Amino acid sequence: MSASQSSQPPVIVTAAILVIGDEILSGRTKDKNIGYIAEYLTNIGIELREVRVVPDVTDEIVAALNALRVRYTYVFTTGGIGPTHDDITADAVAAAFGVSIDYDPRAVAMMRERFAAEDLNEARMRMTRIPAGAELIANSISKAPGFNIGNVYVMAGVPAIMQAMLDVVAPTLRTGTKILSDTVQAGLREGDIGGPLAEVAKAHPDVSIGSYPFWSETGPDTNIVVRSRDAEKLQVAMAEVKKMIREYGQRAR
Amino acid sequence: MSASQSSQPPVIVTAAILVIGDEILSGRTKDKNIGYIAEYLTNIGIELREVRVVPDVTDEIVAALNALRVRYTYVFTTGGIGPTHDDITADAVAAAFGVSIDYDPRAVAMMRERFAAEDLNEARMRMTRIPAGAELIANSISKAPGFNIGNVYVMAGVPAIMQAMLDVVAPTLRTGTKILSDTVQAGLREGDIGGPLAEVAKAHPDVSIGSYPFWSETGPDTNIVVRSRDAEKLQVAMAEVKKMIREYGQRAR
């Protein structure tokens, strides 16, 4: 009887991020959303499997969205839902789903909380255009909502607003068995322990072992990260990694 | 006679970035390479059109690489060329190109510059495995080279090493007509000027006009960025944007 038979099979929920915006591809704006969402999803038990960044071009957004939404449990988009002509995400998402798009009375009501009638001009009304069948995602910062259609969550590109929207969305998501992770600082050079580490990895195929070199105060060093959805397997593999590090360290002295 | 007939047609050279690494998707490591490469390419006249981030999974790397390399002039990959078992980029690139991979004498010679024979263990020798037909990319930081095969440039994930490799690669690349860009801080809220800005954009279809809201010391503000490969068209469109901002500002007072 293998150890894994004693535990429930893991529930796997996956995701992709689609970042939309010429300003990221030109390098003018440095993305701050990918890392934030990645860490956030990991913490709630959703496994981020792919990220794409595409320009403000309808066909590119539609193609990427349709490729991602059939492959992963969820797709999170950032960017392109503002009030100006270059904000084309909502229209592209409607096109990807083959649904119509129009001013949404619920979104208009949200905008009225912030803007007087005379300020609700054509540009701001653009932000109330929502694909048919979508649910709104509240925006506590600046009111203009994101939306959810099918398994796609359309959020703002401005980090503070995206983060507020993600907080609204997260409790509604199906989550899976969290991937647990444990890190040990080897105090050794990656190239020195690559061989024995590969043997540990081979002996523990159900955990993922990553090796990340960095410079510590005393010179080249390596973080070894062991990841698994199974706490016991993680613990066993990490013990092997630590044993390997100790043994290698003694041999090296 | 249109103004564009007086100038040479622009040369367009495109690129994609493929970031390889579980640590980026888990959020453990925050990518610093996308923004750096994006800005670098823009500055030398190469247009970054797409970015993908994929995990350390051979099939995912192969599929993404094959999708990107047929679409863009160049593909730049980062990550997965270190000495440990989870570094599988070189093998995946060989698989994508359908070529063999083996220890490369040129790469071994580079490693010997840094490592004594007894330190050139199996793990470090892993970093000398290069797909058949590839040219090496020198690594001035830690010797283990990247490589170029076809239109694909395979670079390290560690930012300092990637940056050194990009400096080596850049002079060998074909570059296109630079996309010029000019920015004006509107001093106005994005939603206030979205309408007139859309009219300017419509009247100048050959330039790209982006609108990026931000918070300045005095409150909500907007940067308007005009981009074009044609300096004259950019100047004309930017003059229109500034005129619009002045007129709107006066009306608003």
UniProtKB/TrEMBL annotation, chains A, B:
Every MoaB/Mog domain range: 16-176
Origin superkingdom: Bacteria
Pfam families xrefs: FLAD1_M, MoCF_biosynth
Gene3D superfamilies for this protein: MoaB/Mog-like domain
Transmembrane parts of this sequence: none
Protein name per its UniProtKB record: Competence/damage-inducible protein A
Species of origin: Bosea spartocytisi
